[in-house]
Amino acid sequence: MKKLLILVMLVSMGLAGVVSAERGKMIYHRWDDGNGTTTVRAYTRNFTTPPTSTNYAYAGSGSPAGLTTPSWENGGNYAARFEGWMIPPIDGNYKFWIAADDYAELWLSTSENPAGAVKIATENGWTGQNDFGDADIVPSGWLPLKANQPYYFWAAWSEGGGGDGCGVGFQCAEAGVTTTTLVPMAYVSNTCPVDLVHPYTNVGAVEYQYWKAATDVSELGIINGIMPDFSTITTPPTSTGTMAKFWVNMPAQTDDYVYRQYGIIKVDVADLYTFGTTSDDGSKLYIGNWWESGPLTLVVNNDGWHGGQWRYGSIELPAGYAGIVVEMFEDGGGDILQVNYRTSTIPWKEIPMEAIYSAKTACAPYPHNKMYVPVDAVLTWSNPVGKTNFTNVVYFAEAGKTLVKVAEGTQTSYDPELVVDKAYQWRVDVSEPNETPGGQPTITTGPTWGFFTKVEPAKKLVAYWPLDEDLADDTGNLLPGTYYSTDASAPVFEPGMKGNALAVNIAGTTNSQYARLAAPFMTGFSPTGVGNNSPRTIACWAKNAVPAAEVGNWCNVFGFTSTTSANEYVFDFNKYGGNAQYCITRYGGDWGFAPMDGTWHFLVASYDPATRIVKWYLDGVYTGQATGQQLQTQDIVHIGKRAPSNQTALFRGWVDEARIYNYALSDQEIAALYLDANPTGCVKGTGPAYDFNGNCVVDVPDLLIFAADWLKDNMVE
Q: Computed from CA positions of residues 640, 620, 674, 463, in that sequence, does the dihedral angle turn out positive or negative?
């Protein structure tokens, strides 16, 4: 009764129309004013006349895959506008077109700030649907845009009669798009995704010099594939600058060039550091205080003509700052450069952007690119390495507003006044005195950083279905689930992994048995609170009752399903097509990871939007992950069948101990869940001592593993 009252109250408060912000949506405005003009109305630019309607359009079933109206038959005599934020997938030069019926304008900002929007493209007549080759279109010039940086945009058009609609196209050679194509909605958001504002690139951390040969690298002293002493190169660099890490960045990615890159890492405790380079062609890595013109020690020699080749070397480093200088050349063919390191506490990995310090600007900021920053947070940063006579000038403001100077001095922290649920941006410039009497100080502008004071939801189990005798959620958060069968029979519960389990379609598929455990009661209401792109873990035990070939391909076993089949709209366990496997799927991303072999298996999958990583686990053990992911799920949870009415594939077997969490569980938490239902089982890492192969017993294979490692350590005389 209390839950029913809460629902009634929500409707009464007008929350039924709330739609969450996410990628794949744009904000749509329309003015039904009998518009018949041949120009774009001024009020679509400044809203001096309120729109007739405003909504998050084109986000549900029937949504277009690209940035366009889903239909070009939306009526006549109106003015309209859609807006949002474009989030480019890759650094590159972009060009935009706008096609509309009738007249149209496209505006784009240089950042996420709407105040910076300028007109970049027009359409001065009318076009057919998304006809970007029409002579009336004036496209933009080539615009350099950064990956993952949100850019505010709006497009407006004026419709008289006849056909109508609007679409935005683009080209970007770096993204592999060389013919004009609709901007994918996957790179559009209906609100500024503050967690992506100013992603941490450690601007200026790695300095570089780049030489491009006119015809051959021999002009730069590369003789027989051997690099020269760089001090002997008298030709000025073709370009210099800074970049985020050690790698082959623009302007390279061609043939016949030489690179020299400089970075700094912080050594907290004296240790043996091992560095490695993978390069095509040759490379060398030196250690030394290059910013003070100190001596350099060669640690890695990976010189010569070769494809992608790995070489490494070690050096003892004292506590403090250590400079890294990487040289490489590219003669012809492919090119690559990657720099890795390890210590007694750091496993082998590429030197990450956040570990590289700058000799020019403030660096290592906190907080930056963080969503859940407390309102009592203090801003901190590190000074540029090697500078001594300077002051820090601190700027701070809400995101979208002009940065304001708030402090100046030698401090490396600032305590701002913060309020909850706000986006902020900040910057630290370095001011060095001018030795000329009366001269102005030298200012080195730092990168702009951003964060959000969103309140982090409590991490918890939001739904738990034991499935012993009914479809009730034991957490009490949800109403009982609904069972479906064409013969109107009651659900069947049979012995499972822990108590009973829900049995579906054991005898056959005639009755199309499945369960709906959660679904929205109204627009915008999320029963589990886990929807769209929010973090989560789903877990259940499953066992097929018939051979895998008799289980419906791509059937839902358990998890978030959807009434649409668009990419990213689901997150559930399925049968992996025609394979005898379970998979985790989100449409367009399907990863098989567990055998469908007629025995019980514990299936777990997690998603963390902060890292954009999906992980999957089999029987309590991590087995794989996929990076660069995102979700747009509806809060619909099923067992046995997908939600669309035209989806008839059915799971045939048992499901037990189904759970949903609102965060990504740790490996240890998942192992504990496995042992909860299978206390006599064993997860790798929880077995007896000397169980090296993780099979939960100490046997001959463990002895062989031990002996092999013993011999590797040279412990035999």
A: negative
The pLDDT tens digits of the residues spanning 66-120 come to 888 766 555 667 888 888 889 887 778 899 999 988 788 999 988 877 777 888 9
Q: Which CATH architecture has domain 363-452?
A: Sandwich (2.60)
* DSSP symbols for 215-271: S-GGGGT-BTTB---GGG--SPPSEEEEESSSB--TT-SSSSEEEEEEEEEEESS-E
Domain ranges (residues) in the chain: 20-192, 206-357, 363-452, 461-677, 689-717
Indicate the helix (H) or strand (E) that contains 695.
Answer: none
Name residues whose C-beta falls within 8 Å of residue 266's C-beta, 6 or more positions apart in sequence.
Answer: 320, 321, 322, 355, 357
pLDDT category, 63, cuts 50, 70, 90?
A: very low
Bridge-based pairing state of the strands 26-31 and 78-86: antiparallel
Fold match, 20-192 / 461-677: yes
Asked whether the bond before 295 is cis by omega within 30 degrees of 0, the reply is no
Q: How far, in Å, CA of 264 to CA of 172, rounded?
A: 33
Query: Residue 115 and residue 666: Cα distance in Å, rounded?
Result: 42
Q: Give the DSSP H or E segment for 429.
A: strand 423-432
HSE (side-chain half, CA atoms, 13 Å) at 288: 14
Q: Which residues contact 247 (CB under 8 A, 6 or more apart)?
A: 337, 338, 339
**CA dist list (Å): 78 to 29, 81, 131, 265, 386:** 11, 10, 21, 59, 62
Return d(Cα 394, Cα 379) in angstroms, integer: 10
**Which class in CATH covers the domain with range 206-357?**
mainly beta
Question: Which residue has 């998603």 as its token pair?
Answer: 607
Of all residues in the chain, the percent with pLDDT exceeding 90 is 43
Q: In what order do the strands lie in the sheet with 165-172?
A: 143-145, 92-101, 165-172, 177-182
User: Quick one: CATH architecture of 20-192?
Assistant: Sandwich (2.60)
Among 246, 248, 247, 250, CA closest to 263: 246
Residues recorded for the chain: 717
Supply the DSSP symbol for 74.
S
Q: Is the peptide bond before 216 cis (omega within 30 degrees of 0)?
A: no
The single-letter DSSP state of residue 114 is G
DSSP state of 110: S
Sorted by sequence, the CB contacts under 8 Å of residue 419 that are 6+ apart come out as 375, 453
Handedness of CA 463, 609, 542, 645 (dihedral sign): positive
- For 712, phi then psi, to 5°, come to -60, -30
CA distances from 231 to 414, 701, 711 (A): 42, 56, 46
Residue that is written with structure tokens 């076993």 in the block: 557
Q: Are 548 and 580 in contact (CB under 8 A)?
A: yes
Please report, as a single letter, which amino acid is at residue 416. Answer: P
pLDDT, tens digit, 9 for 90 and up, residues 266-297: 999 999 999 999 998 899 999 999 999 889 99
Residue 154, token pair as written in the block: 């709006």
Indicate the residue type of 315. Answer: I
List, in sequence order, every residue forming a beta bridge with 171; answer none if it has no partner.
Answer: 95
Q: Residue 676 and residue 613: Cα distance in Å, rounded?
A: 26
What is the β-pairing status of strands 137-138 and 118-123? antiparallel
CB 262 within 8 A of CB 290: yes
548 to 154, 288, 485, 574, 599: CA distances (angstroms): 50, 61, 22, 12, 11
Please name the fold of domain 461-677: Jelly Rolls (2.60.120)
